[in-house]
Amino acid sequence: MMFLKRTTQAELDAFYPVRPECQDSVPKPRFKLRTGKTLSARRWHSSFSEEGQLDIAKVLRRIQRGGVHPSIRGAVWEFLLGCYGPNSTFDDRSLIRQRRREQYDEWKAECKKMVPVIGSGKFLTTPIVTDDGQPIEGAPGAQSDQQQNNDAVFEKKVIQWKQVLPQIGLDVVRTDQPLVFYQNERNQAKLWNILSIYAWEDSDISYVQGMNDICSPMVVLFENEADAYWCFERAMRRLLMWAMEYNPNTFLLYETSAAAETTANISEKLLKQYGKYERNNVRTGFKDYQSGLAVFLAASILENKHKRILKEAKGLDDVVEILGDVTGNIDAKKIDQSLISWIASRFDPVTHSLKIREDLTTVLDSEMVGWVLGVPSGDILFYPEKAYYEEFKQLKKIYKENSLCGAIKRSKVYHKLCFEKYNKSMFKQLFLLYTLGVLLCPMDNKTWISSSHVYYLNNASNAYEYNWGRYMLEWLTKYSDNWEVLGCGALLLAIIYLDRIRHASIVDWKVNGCRICEWTQDSVDKTIKSDHSHQGHYGKSK
Amino acid sequence: MAAYRAEDDYDYLFKVVLIGDSGVGKSNLLSRFTRNEFNLESKSTIGVEFATRSIHVDDKIVKAQIWDTAGQERYRAITSAYYRGAVGALLVYDVTRHVTFENIERWLKELRDHTDSSIVIMLVANKADLRHLRAVSTEDAKAFAERENLFFMETSALESLNVENAFSEVLTQVYHVVCRKALDVGGDPTALPKGQTIDIGKDDVSEVKKVGCCSA
């Protein structure tokens, strides 16, 4: 038995040999061959009908339980990634394969015409064109056979592509270096060819660092470069959402989540958003509340904390305390009222612009609002879709019955939260309303807020996917003439204004989080004071 | 070891950014400084990472939060968020690849566009151990650093040469800037810091729009 185990392990190691000097630094693979569980070559081949149709359900079960034997991994992946349908026959597949190889060779030839080093067994790590697209003298393999094309769009595409090629090369040399496989330059060149040709064919995505790691296994698994390309292309389709672009919202999360989460309840999902170094800090219990204190919109707060609130907030004092954790360092009620009205008078709802000084106007956009308030700026926009209209009406009715219709005083919500009993869903809505009041209308407890916010909040199942910045901005413009009543966005405008006239003061900087958190009561007071002229006017800082 | 005290015990927290072309060794400088590790088989950085380490400056504990990013242009979408609040920067090039030195100018411009003028910048000539492959002379780099008013140091993350010095120097300088500023406004808390103009054009808010080019 012992002997058998050793043979299989050795057999496994032989598939992906690691350079001897790297043996220690390479983590041991978790995959183990398990007789009877791992999908073996024999079982794989017996899962096809006579014509070659695959019993996919049967093999999937096995793959799930014990993985795939390395000897058939490439062939299995082709099916799993959808290169071939399980119902295709041997003949179908050989035809598809043939056609795809031809297609790849065609593209490769096209690319080779522009950059001869493609397909030569070598690859580029140094630039071949300058930033403005001029060929660099003496750059190896750069001389293109192609005639100058007068099509400007095409030329631009060519230049952009040529500029990314050395980047691919720089990453290719850093890809899976411990593998003996990549000690061979021809194998590195294979990886480079595939990524380069992909970058040409999919110029929207082109090449983004990290794609090399996705492509590398395909190059190792497939002898044929074209087959590896198509597997990679399929994988890219599946990974598109993840691989296409770095998502700024993820970054926002990354910056602020340290405050919202403590070590005890940090989820694996959230942990993944940290870098590899900081992840360890988070895991081992490093806490830095100060740096990450962030104001999220009510929904985000609820998203993070609603379990805690529902469980712990027995009286409203607790709710207020929890909120206090999140609403940062400024007591909005203390901000000079005359400054607020002065700023509001300088906001133009039509152009979304705030006049900072006579000669300087800042145009607000949803990204800016999102950043200042630390609210997510996701892709989904809030629109009162007609489809929701009935639901909206229904909701209004419920509010009416609970005397929450229209604009309501925050103090009234407070009272309701404190002294009346509700089911969880109503509690959630009231809480949202209250929290939103704190953020949108921080001036005092008598401020009126519109219950129509609740409709949106109630429908935001995943707060991070919605564009709260835009929502806030629309709200701001809609009611800007009436801001004193609705109080909306006064704090937002104040922060944007103060930010723009902020006197460089390195001492007050904190490294993380949204703008609203970087301001303290003290720095707000000081800035306002310095901006206040003897005649009582603002805008002194010119 | 005093340098590795409890993470939350510090007097100052400074954000320092690492910038420079792809493959110049930013991540290895970071891992050498914060964990005393070097990895020959390191992979390219994806997105942004940061690590922290505290050091002593005078009698104070300064905690450095050092941000490392992908060198590739494509990741520039996160630029302003990356630079936001940075008080120190290490501008890294690879002494064996001249093009990485040529691009320093561009990195410097981007840095100055996105940060406060009081930021402390050090030009770092990394991979100094590869003597036989050197493509950028020390003199050229020194001259450039002097012209642009940057600190300069030659390092090797592999040989652990000057890495500690480079980071410590930047942090010490930042600390002095902070102390000086505190002194300037110390007398009268309401007074404007002396001789400082309010540079609205350079302020963060105007840059924020660039953050979201992918989500728009």
From TrEMBL, chain A:
Signal sequence extent: none
One Pfam family here: RabGAP-TBC
Superkingdom classification of source: Eukaryota
Molecular function GO labels: GTPase activator activity
InterPro entries registered for this protein in UniProt: Rab-GAP-TBC_dom (IPR000195), Rab-GAP_TBC_sf (IPR035969)
SMART domains xref list: TBC
Organism of provenance: Chenopodium quinoa (Quinoa)
Lineage: Eukaryota, Viridiplantae, Streptophyta, Embryophyta, Tracheophyta
Transmembrane segment boundaries: none
Domain Rab-GAP TBC span(s) in chain numbering: 67-371
Protein name, UniProt field: Rab-GAP TBC domain-containing protein
UniProtKB/TrEMBL annotation, chain B:
Matching InterPro entries: P-loop_NTPase, Rab_GTPases_membrane_traffic, Small_GTP-bd, Small_GTPase
Name used for this protein in its record: Ras-related protein RABA1f
Membrane-topology descriptor: Lipid-anchor
Database matches in PROSITE patterns: RAB, RAS, RHO
Keywords: GTP-binding, Lipoprotein, Membrane, Nucleotide-binding, Prenylation
Family, per entry: Belongs to the small GTPase superfamily. Rab family.
Organism of provenance: Chenopodium quinoa
PANTHER family, sorted: DRAB11-RELATED
GO cellular component term, pick one: endomembrane system
Pfam family, one: Ras
Top-level taxon in the UniProt lineage: Eukaryota
Localization: Endomembrane system
Transmembrane region(s): none
Gene Ontology MF: a single term: GTPase activity
